[in-house]
Amino acid sequence: MNPLPTFATRTTIHQVEEGSELAPKFDVDGLIPCVTSDAVTGEVLMLGWMNAQALRLTIATSQAHYWSRSRQVLWHKGATSGLVQQVVELRIDDDQDALWLRVSVQAGPHSDAASCHVGYRSCFYRRVEPGGGRLRFVESAKTFDPRLVYGDAPNPTVL
Amino acid sequence: MNPLPTFATRTTIHQVEEGSELAPKFDVDGLIPCVTSDAVTGEVLMLGWMNAQALRLTIATSQAHYWSRSRQVLWHKGATSGLVQQVVELRIDDDQDALWLRVSVQAGPHSDAASCHVGYRSCFYRRVEPGGGRLRFVESAKTFDPRLVYGDAPNPTVL
């Protein structure tokens, strides 16, 4: 893999907004949100979180790494499921406190390409009905069976 | 506008992940992150934050409302610039702690359609160069002049 990149210190608004130095802002928990989308279809697959090490590893390896807030561990996406996210492009926003990762997802041993632990292709598999509070499924079927892929690992969803 | 929707209480993981009740999870600050993309091109325009009222108003009016963390106010996107985001579709993720808003951005009196306070179409106007920590501009020119649109309003970017 490439060497781990370093980040610039944030000194001025001009530097952060108009410059070419990577100077990400991590929140009070040391995390930055990352929108991950399919590089070909544009579908948003998930909203993940990275700490500094996850961001460095994502850049150095060209594979998505996140910080799992529910499990409190560095998370190489696909390490368990095989559904690795290959980085096509990484973008950062104006004030450098959010990332947009465009990826290509590889299929796993038990599954076509997917990114959601519930088994769907995208985590955003439900839409909010206009004018109301009801949800409607956008994906008609799961891509994989989570029991087959994750076994009896605990569900990361927190109530 | 439609009546403000109500949100369901989060009771079980099955309800949250597999159900059709809107039961969003707000963080310790009462906020939920929202990925906003162009409904036609799929381009991610911004990552915003909503509190419960902003989410209710977004659903009821079909125009994007956010909570401005830097200004600490409810923010009807486009109220100042005219660059209103019309909701095409609103999605929520598996554990209902993130939103994906697909919008159509209308042009303003001083600008073609854009969503970034710096003047670019998307807030994500820079990519991280592969293997390094340098940024490269993806948009070649600003869509509007922020001074013309915002006057002397303070820049919302926080160092």
Helix-and-strand structural type of chain A: alpha+beta
Name the assembly state.
homodimer
Q: Count the DSSP helices of chain A.
A: 3
Shape of chain A: globular
Largest sheet of chain A: 4 strands, mixed
Low-confidence blocks of residues of chain A: none
- Kindly, what is the distance between the CA atoms of the first and last residues of chain A, rounded to a whole number of angstroms? 37 Å
**Count of DSSP strands of chain A:** 8
User: Which bin fits the share of residues in helices of chain A?
Assistant: 10-25%
Give the percentage of residues in beta strands of chain A. 25-35%
The average pLDDT value of chain A, as a whole number, equals 94
Provide the succession of SSEs of chain A.
HEEHEEEEEEH
How would you describe this structure to a colleague?
Two copies of one chain form a homodimer. The first copy, chain A, has three helices and eight strands, in the order αββαββββββα. Chain A has helices at 13-18, 52-61, 146-150; strands at residues 32-38, 44-50, 65-68, 73-76, 85-92, 99-105, 126-128, 135-137. At the A-B interface, helix 1, strand 1, strand 2, strand 5 and strand 7 of A face helix 1, strand 1, strand 2, strand 5 and strand 7 of B. Strand 7 of chain A pairs antiparallel with strand 5 (85-92) of chain B, so a sheet runs across the interface.
SSE blueprint and pairings:
The structure is a homodimer of 159-residue chains.
Chain A: H1 13-18, E1 32-38, E2 44-50, H2 52-61, E3 65-68, E4 73-76, E5 85-92, E6 99-105, E7 126-128, E8 135-137, H3 146-150
Parallel strand pairs in A: 1-6
Antiparallel strand pairs in A: 1-2, 3-4, 5-6, 7-8
